[in-house]
Amino acid sequence: MSIKNNTFIMKLLGCALIPILTLIIVINLRSAPTPSFEAVSGQSYSWKSEKWTLVNYFAEWCKPCLEELPELNELAQAGDLRVFGISYDSLSDQEIMDLKKRYQIQFPVLQTSSLETLPMSLPAVLPTTYILSPDGEIVDVLHGKVTIEGIETLLEKHQHGKS
């Protein structure tokens, strides 16, 4: 009789532990750090944000990339979305800071070492712009020069759930 009671008690304990273990796992997953990245300024950012995020790959030798920089600066200054740049070429932090100064880039440009944590891969064409939702998910990829109007239209479409 005591073996049957012990088996019943063990099964009962096992059933009681499953929801507790599940809760512990969920809490740990929610508190896991979000992947982050750093700009050449040394400031860290997270892919998740309250705002939408625009990530633009550019290169100094790419004429359309340089032509869209004033539009990207204006978008960044407006403050409605986060704008980040990524140099297509593997440059040192100092070379990127020099590039920012030379072309008056007014938004953060990522460190080359941060590229490993990106949710996107190196594009095949330049310029390439990624639009990320506040959850950090890529929702659109644009190839070629972007404009303020084009980005605003695209954001409006995604924010209102239209395809």
TrEMBL record:
Residues annotated as domain Thioredoxin: 26-160
Name of one Pfam family that matches: AhpC-TSA
Transmembrane segments: none
InterPro entries: AhpC/TSA, Thioredoxin-like_sf, Thioredoxin_domain, Thioredoxin_ResA/DsbE_sf
Cited SUPFAM superfamilies: Thioredoxin-like
PROSITE patterns noted in UniProt: THIOREDOXIN_2
Protein name stated in the entry: TlpA family protein disulfide reductase
